[in-house]
Amino acid sequence: MTLPTMLPHGRDEVLQWCRAVDEGPWSSLAVPERVAYTSHSMTVQLAAAAALTERVRLWTTIVVLPSHNAVRMAKDLASVDQLSDGRLTVGVGVGGREQDYRAVSAPFTRRWQRLDDQVATMRATWAGTPPEPDLDPIGPPPVQAGGPPLVAGAIGPKATARAARWAAGIDDGTAIANPDAEALAEVATRVRAAWREAGRTDEPHLSTSIWYALGDNAETRLRTYAFDYLKIFGPEIAEAIADTATVHSPKALRTAVETVKAAGFHELFLVPTTTDPQELPRTREALGI
């Protein structure tokens, strides 16, 4: 389950969502990131979730790492790993919105190479290597040995091949509006092939996310959410993709879950399009869990 990070909300919603998700049966609680949007700060919500939960695993879906200082982000994420007692998995990627980079005065160029370099910097920081020889190591140390697992938010063959050098898996974003069985199966095949070509024998973790809505006015709410989220790319693109968002009934949600599972994915992040905590019991009822 994903927190409704992208929607305006306050303390009460955060408390209710975190506690209800932690009660189960969810495997993970995810926090996404955008800057030039109505969204809450990812690291702030992640820290709150770490303190408000005991069981569920925490995920970032995803940190747009090249828009951050890698040492500062390593420190923040190690702090969350401490607060959660080692329950953090870190999804990282480059994002696709130049506006988010501009908002924090970060360069948009060479972001893939910078991502690779920053991953190495974060791991060195977590291992206790000072960023400069005359500086002290950056704490706190993460609870998880070597730092939290890193999953790449990668789409396409080149990004997947790069990720195979350092990631524990791939968080694919192509299913967000309407999961397609054939497309997801192709992603799974491509990722596993990239792992083999990189000389790896471990199974890559495969995850993806979908927007969904249940209850009154679900279809309108889902498509409005999708349009608002994507309008940064222009109204025509936003409307075209929003019109394909189909997961707005219990049956459609069950079908989406089975589609992702059948494609060989290990985890599916549900992205709510409301801050109403009652979406959680509606979701459990729809899925029979």
Describe this structure in words.
With 289 residues, this protein is α/β, with parallel strands linked by helices. The chain is 44% helix and 13% strand. It has a single domain (11-287), classed as TIM Barrel (Alpha-Beta Barrel). It contains eleven helices and seven strands. It has a seven-stranded parallel sheet with strand order 1-2-3-4-5-6-7. The protein is globular. The two termini are 13 Å apart.
Keyphrases for this structure?
seven-stranded parallel beta sheet; LLM class flavin-dependent oxidoreductase; 44% helix; alpha/beta; Luciferase-like_sf; 13% strand; single chain; TIM Barrel; 289 residues; Bact_Lucif_Oxidored
Topology (SSEs and partners):
Layout (H helix, E strand, L loop, with lengths): L10 H12 L5 E4 L10 H11 L4 E8 L5 H14 L4 E6 L4 H6 L7 H16 L23 E3 L4 H7 L5 E4 L8 H17 L7 E8 L5 H13 L4 H8 L7 H13 L4 E6 L6 H9 L2
Parallel strand pairs: 1-2, 2-3, 3-4, 4-5, 5-6, 6-7
Cα-atom radius of gyration: 18 Å
Series of H and E elements: HEHEHEHHEHEHEHHHEH
User: Given the structure, what is the number of helices?
Assistant: 11
Strand proportion, as a percent range, falls in 5-15%
Strands of the widest sheet, in order across it, are: 1-2-3-4-5-6-7
The counted number of beta strands is 7
The major β-sheet equals:
7 strands, parallel
- Tell me which CATH architecture applies here: Alpha-Beta Barrel
Q: TL;DR?
A:
This protein has 289 residues and is α/β, with parallel strands linked by helices. Helices cover 44% and strands 13% of the residues.
